[in-house]
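SEQUENCE-TO-STRUCTURE ENTRY
===========================
What this section holds: a protein sequence and its matching fold, both as plain text.
Question of interest: how does this chain fold, as expressed in backbone structure tokens?
***
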Amino acid sequence: MSEEIKISAEVERDMRTVLRGVDELLVESEFAQKLQKSRDTGVPLRIKLGMDPTAPDIHLGHTVVLTKMRQLQDMGHQVIFLIGDFTAAIGDPSGRNATRPPLSREQIEVNAQTYYEQAAKILDSERTEIRYNSAWCDELGSRGLIQLASRYTVARIIERDDFTKRFKGGIPISIHEFLYPLLQGYDSVALKSDVELGGTDQKFNLLVGRELQKEYGQAQQSVLTMPLLVGLDGVEKMSKSKNNYIGITETPESMFGKIMSISDSLMWNYYELLSAKTLDEIDALKKAAEAGENPRNIKVALAQEIITRFHNAQAAEKALADFEARFRDGQIPDEMPEFTFAEPMGIVALLRESGLASSGSEASRHIQQGGVKVDGQRIEDKSLQLSAGTYVVQVGKRKFARITISS
């Protein structure tokens, strides 16, 4: 921006709110200038968040950036929830070590139907602009796509970390994957966005949007990236494909059990990225834990806050009561042995490898007798396979283990 504007105390306060939990804000001083100009002129900033409907449900990982968007919305800015129905057909190569299979139009339409309904649990639906990028991407046509491609070089595209690794490793990269960041960037041109939000894995794509706006003679958007929420396995980012997620439409009981399964150390990351508590309040909870407060109680409070947000307070109380009743007979301990396995595993082998049973035959006998529970649910199928995630496994009344399957 050519003209420097003095930043007011109100904008400095807004900046502190915006920067909470943020991984990176590019360019911070430029963004502050935009906030100040918006406050001075009364013209709200256009805040863009694009999501491809690659799965039918939104999980807590998605809500990290949605919550940041809601903060900006509450400051009076215009938020644009962009459903990438066109780009979903290509498949975002971000963080991928192989070409992502494209989705069919039917799959995309089914998934897109539920996306905004779920996002509206966080955003104010009456103040949210909903757009679909097929509206302008379909109109580009072959000529327009070629003209768009002429505005960015192969050298810059290949700078992208995942493309570089795949190229050096001899892993195929399809030409259409190069088009994805260009089309996501073109969304910013079409929407004339002032700010674009995304996860840290989206940084390259967001910066492409910034550069394309410059090519098209527009003011360049600021780029705000949020950390990726670690999934229940404590290792990978939360993802449906890795089955380490908590969906925001899951039952309160399921959400409660999953939140209680995360490690005590990961709990603090969830508090910072998901909780509405202030940083001072979270710091007070940390000090209480250091002074001897049972981390389980602090985790219960987190579970209830999240369930209240996506269901209601009564559902949160019932989920707590059901959780406590489920484990009352076995008196689930606060501390238990922890095991991590790299691959999905059958329940019989898991009991044997974790020492909860001395042999496969003993494990089978425990299951047959109804003495095995996973996250409080009695297991009757000896062929059960556990995929990626973290589970509390119980044998009898006294044997417990926290099992993490990382992939």
Q: What stands out?
A: The chain is about 50% helix and 15% strand.
